[in-house]
Design brief:
Rossmann fold; 23 strands; globular; binds adenosine-5'-triphosphate; 16 helices; BirA Bifunctional Protein, domain 2; 5-stranded mixed sheet
């Protein structure tokens, strides 16, 4: 654990030093749990987004994408249940005044016990917690915290307040256009992108002439006033989600839930990080909208944690939007319902959702690909830090490097740049020794470097250097573009 914590810290430092992730408004000492993506981070993030978007909207012919606004009519969040139910049980330490999410406090305690070798106690506390959370038994949870003398990390004491619910939505005001009543002017910053899909269900179904089953995908910002927010980009107050709502016939939800569990796991495995890095975690306590739910957990440096959620949301959302908006949210289906032997007719579709955090996916990719290598030999000490990104996700695909800044080599390198830069992201650099330039490219995860040297002038060959193996070979410069294109497809 201590080692993994060190690794996590090293990744956070590397992300900052090499332009991936900066604390937000850092010159003012940052803003808690808000981060900015730098020059290479934003490229990596965009590549992850494209990988998800293309797989959803191209590989499945019955899925289309939308881009809904962050602000929505306030009634949306009444109908969705977020105004009344989007709460987390919280507890404050009376001495430090620090507020904790109850489940995180107890999980932290269990983790500590596990490290001390008290596996049995850790498991038992977690089991009790799950059972109490499932019943919203706050008195029981408080007793669990008291009985185990769980301490605050800041004050070191176990003097706790009672447990209270805390709504996670941010709100702001919307001028005076909605109504003159102050409460009604309140608009929320969406805590999930899904509702933008639900309220557009009929727009998309009708204008796209979509037939059930079909899906609507969306990538966009979401905001949650998270309490425990100290795990870098794992838990942020402003983050991005990639969600897909799949609309289905009532009664088929079990089949589609299993289908999407499998499809989403395949998508993750396609990145080649290894099966052992992922596991399913079934929810015991279901969210207010779900009849089945699980997470795909990833082996982050902070342990196995949720990366993506797959939820069977029943007809909860569309039914409530129908009730609150008084607009029918129905679909007419000619298919025969096997249960009755008659056409389905009109119904409110059921929904299976896949919901992945873009920033968490970024962290999964970054932390898995981060590697410190000892390259020391008997003669000299040496090491390198590299990000072994899959080429299709790498922010930069190719570095083009003239060996020296003269003798016509920069001109040759520029020609290679011109040949490649409209096809993929390339980086040109002539400063410093070639060895230093290679290492800088390793540190931002560039899979290929090509170097033009004096021999290039004679036979039009360049040296290509592969990031992972550091092997170098000579190839004709006409081949550079093709080799990179093949690797990133
Ligand atoms: P958690 O239990 O970690 O708070 P959740 O179960 O509330 O997450 P969902 O509402 O299912 O999360 O959201 C779907 C996905 O959105 C999550 O799997 C996660 O990847 C991402 N996500 C949720 N909250 C955050 C956050 N505060 N920061 C970054 N990503 C988040």
């Amino acid at each position: 654990m201590a080692n993994d914590q060190n690794k996590f810290q090293a990744i956070i430092s590397h992300a900052k030093e090499y332009g991936f992730v900066f604390p937000s408004s850092e010159i003012y000492d940052g803003l808690q749990a808000v981060y900015d993506y730098g020059q290479w981070g934003s490229e990596l993030k965009k590549n992850i987004k494209d990988y998800w978007w293309d797989s959803m909207t191209r590989m499945y012919e019955n899925i289309v994408g939308i881009d809904a606004a962050i602000f929505m009519h306030p009634t949306t969040w009444k109908a969705s249940g977020h105004v009344d139910n989007f709460n987390d049980p919280m507890i404050d330490n009376k001495d430090s005044k620090k507020r904790y999410r109850v489940d995180h406090l107890i999980e932290g305690f269990a983790e500590e016990q596990r490290e001390k070798g008290n596996e049995q106690l850790a498991t038992s506390v977690l089991e009790q917690m799950d059972a109490l959370l499932a019943k919203d038994d706050f008195a029981g949870l408080k007793k669990l915290i008291d009985d185990n003398r769980i301490k605050c990390a800041v004050s070191g004491t176990s003097d706790w307040t009672d447990i209270r619910q805390f709504n996670l939505m941010f709100s702001t005001e919307f001028g005076s256009t909605i109504s003159s009543d102050d409460e009604d002017n309140k608009v929320y910053l969406r805590p999930e992108t899904a509702q933008g899909i639900f309220v557009n269900f009929l727009n998309v179904q009708k204008t796209g002439r979509m037939k059930i089953p079909f899906g609507i995908a969306q990538i966009g910002k979401a905001f949650r006033n998270e309490i425990v927010a100290r795990q870098f980009i794992f838990r942020m107050r402003e983050f991005e989600q990639m969600e897909m709502q799949f609309f289905i016939q009532p009664g088929t939800q079990k089949k589609w839930y299993e289908y999407w569990k499998e499809e989403r796991m395949k998508w993750h495995l396609s990145l080649g990080f290894g099966k052992e890095q992922y596991r399913f975690h079934d929810h015991i306590k279901l969210a207010h909208y779900a009849d089945a739910a699980c997470d795909i957990e990833f082996n982050f440096p902070i342990g196995f944690k949720e990366l993506e959620g797959i939820h069977s949301r029943t007809d909860f959302d569309l039914k409530n939007h129908q009730e609150y908006s008084k607009k029918k949210q129905q679909y007419f289906d000619n298919d025969i319902d096997p249960a009755t032997g008659k056409p389905y007719g009109n119904y409110i579709p059921y929904v299976v959702e896949t919901s992945i955090g873009l920033d968490r996916m970024f962290l999964a990719v970054l932390s898995h690909c981060y590697e410190e290598q000892d390259l020391s030999t008997a003669e000299k000490q040496d090491s390198r830090t590299m990000l072994k990104f899959p080429p299709r996700l790498a922010p930069m695909k190719l570095a083009v490097l003239p060996l020296v800044k003269k003798d016509g080599l920069p001109e040759i390198a520029r020609k290679i740049m011109d040949d490649c830069k409209s096809s993929f992201r390339c980086f040109y650099e002539e400063k410093d020794t070639i060895g230093k330039r290679y290492r800088r490219m390793d540190a931002i995860g560039t899979p290929f470097c090509v170097t033009a040297d004096h021999q290039t002038k004679e036979d039009n060959t360049v040296t290509i250097r592969y990031r992972d193996t550091m092997l170098q070979e000579r190839i004709h410069l006409d081949k550079v573009r093709e080799i990179v294109m093949k690797a990133i497809q």
